[in-house]
Amino acid sequence: MSQTGQLFETRVVPVLVPLPAERPYSYAVPDGMEVAPGSIVQVPLGPRQVAGVVWDGATDRVDARKLRPITRVFDCPPLDATMRRFVDWVADYTLSPPGLVVRMALRAPAAFDPEAWIEGIEATGALPDRMTGARERVLAAASEAPAWSRSGLAHAAGVTPSVVDGLIRQGSFRGVRLPPPPAVAAPDKGYGRAELNADQRAGADALSETVAKGGFSTTLLEGVTGSGKTEVYFEAVARALDAGRQVLILLPEIALTQSFIDRFHARFGAPPAEWHSDVAPRQREKIWRQVAEGRVKVVAGARSALFLPFQNLGLIVVDEEHDPAYKQEERTFYHARDMAVVRGSIGKFPVILASATPSVETRVNAAAGRYGHVRLAGRFAEAAMPDLSLIDMRAAPPPRGRFVSPVLGKAIAETIQRGEQALLFLNRRGYAPLTLCRVCGHRFQCPDCSTWLVDHRLRGQLQCHHCGFAVPRPEACPECGTLDHLVACGPGVERIAEEMLTDFPEARTILLSSDLPGGARRLRRELDAIADGEADIVIGTQLVAKGHHFPMMTLVGAIDADLGLANGDPRAAERTFQLLHQVTGRAGRSGGRSSRGLIQTFQPEHPVMQAIASGDATRFYEREIAERERSGLPPFGRLASVIVSANTRKEAEEHARALRRAAAEDGDIEGLGPAEAPVAVLRGRHRFRLLVHATRRSPIQAFLRAMVAAAPRPRGSVQVQIDVDPQSFL
DNA sequence: AGCACGCCGACT
DNA sequence: GTCGGCGTGCTC
Question: By CB neighbour count within 10 A (0-12 exposed, 13-18 middle, 19+ buried), where does A472 fall?
């Protein structure tokens, strides 16, 4: 310790910086600088300056020569204690460095400095020397509000800005500084209260009471599509706003369409602030800042909105809580629904999980009494319930090479004749799942995986859906060289679209698939267009199942409905049930109009098909939970995977083996399952997934920590990430 | 995550 | 002889 160090006590604080550091770094606080835990600061890090957060707890003992001073404190509301605890909790639970978690909360670099004030003008009351018609209009328009922007006033008065300039010179207006305009208008909790039926009223009252009571709780809001879940939880939102709290509504990214925003707007007189990947950077920063200042009251966002720096969060609603899109499977692996519950628990406020088809783990939590359970019995209008039936494809097959059965084809014809819409759902991208040579029988297979290559005609490629391998569609068989004798086997959405174009050439047909060009933005636009009636036949993969409002959709057909039941995934039945239930729920949402759901299946006797046809979700869940118990699989929790990724398959494989060996040699590491998902390629990196399950003795994180610690340190491009399955948080 | 340092292949 | 590939290691 140097003499100056002894004479002038240097204050040292921990600062969490947004990089994969296991713990906060230590920084010196310059004389006269005020910082406290939560302060957002700028610190030197190597050659650059980064934003970090002053953290809690003791600082690392660090070499005085390394210690560098904080550059500045941003004029920005600090991250509050609950947010800091939340970051630490998520880091611990997901076994990721806290620095990477805090990074998710700091993703709005320009938002740490206050927004600039706007140059505006206000009327002085002085009249100009010479009055003109244009000047009169400007003065009249100006009286509508205390202050204006120069161009805004000109626009409102219907004159050019030079008229306003003239009035400024005449002294009728003076310059004034205006606070930055709000990102969104304030919601009005009493604006467009919906008419609720008795059932919905009871549900809304129960949720509102939970909100009014305050404190942490989790409630499952369960009700079929069209039962008015949204309107019901809007009442809880209104109650939280009434108490002066902020509200977060989480939605799967794809469900954040204009129609949701419109419904919110109709209820609260203003749209919510939107937070998803399509929001422009400037707007993102504005929203981040105003959320931190408590000026934005309601955010509707995708999973990343969970890390927004709310000042006064009082309610989180997780809509479509079963949706797999809530699980982030890159960088920091987390499940937004579960982390929402954790955030509620730390912040001591209620969380509402809404779904027509809850995940099994949420059902189990509700059944065990850990979560409250509010059920909405029926639809708004009972008549709007779709009439569901199974089509036995063994009894009534379509002609060879076709996949839409005559029964469904007839229903489509009738539907579009009436000017209504038909939706065909098939959960398989591309044109055909298998291509073979009619001469020698050669099947096109992925060189790295044991899977067929899927024919994608729109892209002119054969693709492996497992690892991303792709080749141009060949014309000749690579085995026997014969030209033009390759044949596509089985259906994909592209092929169904082709069938529809052949059968209904005059109909407006839209194909929706995640691999079509244009990305999320275009998809949202197309979905809104469909809702506006700009299509007759819609063919789509699972993305059409996700919470859209299609009032004209009176027929839903599921092609190959039992597709998902074949693979060995322990959640196959649950996923298939959820998908089919959601997709058939798209039908019959406009009251009065009769609607149908036709499900093509090769195994109509399967319990999932029976449950779908009967519309009895409860029976399905009870059976599924019992089934999992019988098979020894926990209904949820105590499961995890270790994901090893590397630039080459060999590297990834080698590290996966090392982890396996470490687990085998260390007696304390139990529960490394035999399963190992085949390698997948994601953005050029080869990934291995090892399944891990814990025994009853300790939380699964302990196994994972021990296993990763015992294995050799990753070398080269190798990276290890952990994905912990949903558990109970109470 | 950046960014610099460092050690092996094709070029102004 | 250098420019530059990305493997390795560090950042208070």
Answer: exposed
